[in-house]
Amino acid sequence: MRRYSLEKFARLLENIIYSPSRNRKIELLVEYYKQTNDPDRGFAVALITNSLKLSSIRSTNLKQIIKSKVDPILFDLSYDYVGDMAETISLLWPFKKKKKLCTLSYFINFFHENSKLQVEKFLISQLDKASTTERWAIIKLFTGGLRIGVSEKNAKVSLSKFGNVNLDQIEKIWHGFSPPYVKLFSWLEKGGPIPKIDILKTFHPMMLADQIDLKNDFRKLSPDDFEAEWKWDGIRVQLIISDTETVIFSRNGDNITNSFPELRFKTNRNVVLDGELLVGGDLNPTSFNDLQQRLNRKKVSKGILQKFPAFIKLYDILFQDFKDLRSMKFSSRREILENWYNSNKQDNLDLSSIIFFENWKDLTKVRNKFLQSSNIYEGIMLKKKNSIYYNGRPKGMWYKWKRDPKSVDAVLMYAQRGHGKRSSYYSDYTFGVLDGKNLVPIGKAYSGYTNEELDKLDKFVRKNTIQKFGPVREVEKTLVFEIAFDSISKSKRHKSGLALRFPRISKIRWDKSPEEIEDLKRIKDFYKLS
Amino acid sequence: MHLLDYRLNIVPINVFIDPQYPVEKAIITHAHADHAKPGHKKVLGTKETLEIMKLRYGKTCAGEFQYINYGQKIQIDDVSITLYPAGHIIGSSQVLLEYKNHKIVVTGDYKTKKDTTATSFELVKCNTLVTEATFGLPIFKHPDPNKEVRKILDSIKINNDKDHLIGVYALGKAQRLIKLFRENGFDETIFIHGALNKICNYYEDKGINLGKLKMLTKDSFDIEPKIILAPPSALKDRWSRRFKKKIISQASGWMNIKQRVKQSLIEIPLVISDHADWNELTKTISNCGAENIWVTHGREEGLVHWCTRKGLNAKPLSIKGRDEEI
């Protein structure tokens, strides 16, 4: 057993939650990898990114245990005060003598190899030897959900810093490994060739598009360099079709194959494809709202399958028979895609078509015509003919030219402090519209303003505060925002009954008075959501 | 007739302890703003408490000032009053009331742990104890403060390009923390926010040596990285923006709750308090010999429950406007 491994992990977690800055969190992780051996450091990455969950012990079990050890009324009062079960238990657990804990990997293996009862016993024996912070970390691990503010992306950045390799290289192979990532760490530490992964079982990070800047980009870009495609209003997916199976990943790499039992394909060659998942009969897409009926369902009923049949429109191809096509240019990939599609035609699979156009004016006409008459398009995609398939969002390669945003005038109701660089600024805004005579919040925005505007907004919030709730301030309802958003739908989660998609501040209307803001009923009527 | 009512009025002589509104006669346990209010006709307290009141509110903040020493008995009609050290901050006191063979002690804010900037707490035997309960839950067990300040001293070695901004209350906590830094071997200049200056000077005048201090002025922001003490409110305000590379810390008994630390964006929490923690509270209750315990100023419920389980006669004494730690 290595010395003090669990202790080190607990300290790491504590330091991370106390670090508001993303860079600092990454530094802490890199430091930890340097000082920790396999497989502990790999397990740590898995736990932090939620790729490994140990949530078999319910916090109610732990509650019973602690209540047999301390006065139950004092426990309840303490829990009321602290508000977090793991933390309350860690603070109240009767302190014995601090002794050495087992390693992180011993802990995880013990968890996987033993019955619940044995795990519980073991857990208690460790809690008796632990310090307060260690107890907190152990309980957090076992009750699931560390929530310490490290995203998977940040974990990858920390690994790239640790190994002094490109983030891009890590992104490309990341999904091919599973905890405790021993091969990955060994490569990062010792160098050598990039480790191989199983292409047909692995999610490959997807290429994303930049928002087009209407004022500047069109002047600079030559229409001859670009292909145009529809941007369908569905969900972007990666589709892997091999001799043995079909796998569908969402754009975040979640495996969503089981939600779509009708999407099982055959192929004459193994392929990894990029496309849009849509619903509708005969390959005719219906609205995004219909698609939502199919998302996040574990079981799919026959009725739903019939009413909202799914299909995929193909955009691109990444691999064919283990050949990596991502370094080829778009136009060549498109040719390979079309060839494959033509020799593998089948139900529920379509090729997204290319839009022919001569010049930007031409394309604008097409866009206006189709986007006005139908809501199945989210906009138009412009793809540089010679663009290779990058991970993430490279500059100047792909552009999305979305439908014009909708907008609403709303009034600022609450403001909250931001994070990191913005931590001394009130930068997150909740805004509302009229519901009869009252105001009702309809969304939250924290983008769309310049730094100078943020300064002014921050001053406004401080001067016009009427109440404080922790980091949130309620302000005088006088400042009007023009809020832009991509779409609007009904929602049971919000008091207003509406949810905005991608709300952002498009203008700060210092000139407008709050009497001029929108009314909830009118919004519902206008978007036919009543 | 009661000797003391829920407002801490000594009924037979109509003298209030730490009254929230102007009264004829008041005993002030210590100079923190939620205990020492201006506007009373006559105030009675230790020299330090009343001097700091004058320093903060002006020489005319009360009609008449009567200093008394620790242990010096004052007789008003049938009631005798004696102040004992509370160990909370400079000049802080507990109040012993004696009336017809009954002894009541009002602890005020107190701690029993070592603090070289305040006279040490003295246990006073009594029949009734009116105890504070700021940290009246068993989750509060304050660690060794020397260990806590070493977190900063370790951090300035590693993060030697950053300012360390520490949030502290201007009276008591600031000076105790400075003293703790000195006792742990840090003898370089410590920088202080303007709001701390007056009180630090006062402590120096009283012979408490705080070492090299410098008040931050407009032109001293850009000099070498440093330890800076400031009121907690300043850390969250625009004032702190001028420090480009900084680590935020705060010294308070609440800092043992991780969620709270995270929410306040504190990077180095220092669990240092001038209030009694759970162990100190329960020990004092057990040792003072009182059979009646009135609990006030904080999380009363837990402490009342504990007392009741011990067979003591306990009840909460509700006083508005006092919750957070000072």
Structure commentary:
Chain A is of the alpha+beta class and 530 residues long. Chain A has helices at 5-17, 22-35, 40-48, 59-69, 72-82, 85-92, 104-113, 116-129, 132-143, 152-163, 167-174, 182-190, 217-220, 288-292, 302-307, 330-343, 360-373, 451-463, 520-526; strands at 210-211, 226-232, 235-241, 246-250, 271-279, 310-320, 323-324, 349-351, 354-355, 377-384, 398-402, 406-417, 426-435, 438-445, 465-469, 472-475, 480-485, 487-490, 498-501, 504-509. Chain A folds into 3 domains: 5-143, DNA ligase, ATP-dependent, N-terminal domain (DNA ligase i, domain 1); 210-402, D-amino Acid Aminotransferase, Chain A, domain 1; 406-526, OB fold (Dihydrolipoamide Acetyltransferase, E2P) (Beta Barrel). In chain A, strands 12, 13, 14, 15, 16, 17 and 20 form a 7-stranded antiparallel sheet that branches. In chain A, strands 3, 4, 5, 6, 7 and 8 form a 6-stranded mixed sheet that branches. In chain A, strands 1-11-10-2-9 form a 5-stranded mixed sheet, with helices on one face. Chain A starts with a helix and ends with a helix. The model of chain A has no long low-confidence stretch (mean pLDDT 90). With 326 residues, chain B is of the alpha/beta class. Chain B folds into 2 domains: 9-139 and 275-316, Ribonuclease Z/Hydroxyacylglutathione hydrolase-like (Metallo-beta-lactamase, Chain A); 145-270, Rossmann fold (3-Layer(aba) Sandwich), CATH 3.40.50. Chain B contains 8 helices and 18 strands. Chain B is globular and about 65 Å long.
Question: Can you give me a brief rundown of this structure?
Answer:
The complex is a heterodimer of chains A (530) and B (326). By secondary structure, chain A is of the alpha+beta class.
